[in-house]
Amino acid sequence: MQRKDFGFRVGTGAFALVLLLIVAAIGVELTRQSLPSIQKFGFSFWRTQTWDPVAGDFGALPFIWGTLYSSVLALLIAAPIALGIAVFIAELCPAALRQPLVFLTELLAAIPSIVYGLWGIFVLVPAVRAVETSMPASLRSLPLFSGPPLGLGMLAAALILAVMIVPFTSSVSREVLKSVPAAQREAAYALGATRFEAIRAALYYARTGIVGAVMLGFGRALGETMAVTMVIGNNPRISTSLFAPQYTMAAVIANEFTEAADNLYLSALVEIGLVLFVVTLIVNSLSRLLIWSMSARTAPAAEAATPPAEEAA
Amino acid sequence: MRSSTSDTKKGSYPFSAKKGYDPFFAAALVVVALGAGVSAAVKINGAGATFPYPIYSKWFSEYNKLHPDVEINYQSIGSGGGIRQIQAQTVFFGATDGPMTPDQLQASPSKILHFPTVLGAVVPVYNIPHVRAELKFSGSLLADIFLGKVTKWNDPAIAKLNPGVSLPGSDITVVHRSDGSGTTYIWVDYLSKTSPEFLKKVGVNTSVNWPTGVGGRGNEGVSALVTQTPGALGYVELIYALQNKISYGTVQNMAGEFVKASVESVTAAASAAARQMPADFRVSITNAPGNGVYPVSSFTWLLLYENPKDKAMSKAMIDFMKWALTDGQKYCGDLGYAPLPADVVKLELAALGRVKTS
């Protein structure tokens, strides 16, 4: 029996090791393939803004900016909506509606991104353009809304990303909320909490899981390629304007990889992949840190169940 | 196909050791038998440009009907990919929309030959509300627009070429390709020939650093953006402008005429170039001299090794090429390509003799 256990442990351990090896192999291979570009540009690749395949001059900053900006915007739009959906389905929804709603959110997650992209080009972009053109001139003078109203651009990209990450964030948040022990809510009610206050207590209890759900959506937004490239305008220029066409790392790789015949050009594109890999690693590590610090700081408080409900009482 | 056949053979051995009827074994046998039936045929793999993909796949399937023993597979992975794959010798032939550079030829394991197969044209497409007239463009005007120097539709430079057309004072939204593309190569090649400033600031490649505008993915992406955006000006392959019924303008050629892209005007550009055709066919025919020539035209090339390793494939490929350059040209019109002029075909048929088949 013990021997069997040992074998089981080694077996599953080997699978876990495979995961580590794959990640390491990706890192090594990306670095190896981008060596010509790393040797030529060094660290300046991360902070220069020119992307000129003709002259062989490459810098990744506009793509890093575009990726982070669009993902953060998408997160700001999607997180409250996803949380609202999760709370409604987990806590408030009439039983008859629950399954259809769960099914619909999961259906959204299953739509291929090229379909989102086509919908973006033919429906979302004209709608965004209409909103942009009807915006009063006083608002248009703000840097956030400057530039011609093309429809294509950061705003359209952020909106489409938001639609794409809502199902992920809401599904995971819903599961997390469902796993909150009933005793938590019962205790809150026992103390005279209203329904809103009891839900707030449950959310507080589930906060690390919810942050995890949000970060899952963020990770997805960072790497999303096809839908974004179809609506973002693909212009590698840094701008804070929501209306400006911009570019992301995943999009430039998808767009230019097939036609890149020159070695340095190809290697610069692979280095963009390496940069995306590193940025994703940093973002995931930061979110891990955030979750750890949250659970470490408030671990004793969790035993005291529901401080907000106490206040209310 | 080849590897899957041999895999199935290998996979069938363990089954054959079993006793009695085994459905998997039977199925494997059938697959092996089918594989063996076809394995007498010559199978040739190629990869490269997406632009000629519709006609290449038409050719390969039509040729396969005439010669069932020859099967040619083509993957449209892009010109850059096609060049890399033939250099690595993972495919028998490559295909590209821009000729290989001297550096790329140098880096190849042995000599690679270029063969033009068909011709394509790129047209300026636009969407100006309430303007029905067919606009006229010159190369230098288009270059200035794509450089971001001419930004309004009623700019004097546009008005001068289009007297009598009332143009709005709205902004021009420049739409270009976001993905690397032979279409972009042809377009910027023409703009660079007509505008020294464009050559200096932007240059020629399948992807360039555009000073202005938004990028659409693929011909269909650019078509969609132009049709949706009032005031847009972009460039697409002729066939996309025709299929999507987008207005496209005439472009001034070297002789000073404003010519609309058509099968005849594109083939005329190739005939004009044929007179000074270099022996390796690596020639740009944008802004070609002569009357009736549409200036934004280009060949697309098929790439072959001069001395391929597999001589059986080489023989089959040469036979196919002879057919494609002659009988095969009749499929051009329906698919929006212009056929090669007769004098170019003659030069190529002679050049095909350089490829070793034994």
SSE topology:
The complex is a heterodimer of chains A (313) and B (358).
Chain A: H1 2-33, H2 35-41, E1 51-52, E2 57-58, H3 61-92, H4 95-110, H5 113-133, H6 137-140, H7 154-178, H8 182-190, H9 195-205, H10 207-223, H11 226-231, H12 249-256, H13 263-297, H14 299-303, H15 307-312
Antiparallel strand pairs in A: 1-2
Helix pairs in contact in A: 1-13, 2-13, 3-7, 3-10, 4-7, 5-7, 7-10, 8-9, 10-13, 12-13
Chain B: H1 2-17, H2 23-39, E1 42-48, H3 53-66, E2 70-75, H4 79-87, E3 93-96, H5 102-106, E4 112-127, E5 136-137, H6 139-147, H7 156-161, E6 173-177, H8 182-194, H9 196-201, E7 214-216, H10 218-228, E8 232-237, H11 238-243, E9 250-252, E10 258-259, H12 263-274, E11 297-305, H13 311-325, H14 332-335, H15 342-352
Parallel strand pairs in B: 1-2, 1-3, 5-9, 6-7, 6-8
Antiparallel strand pairs in B: 3-11, 4-8, 4-11, 9-10
Helix pairs in contact in B: 1-2, 6-8, 13-15
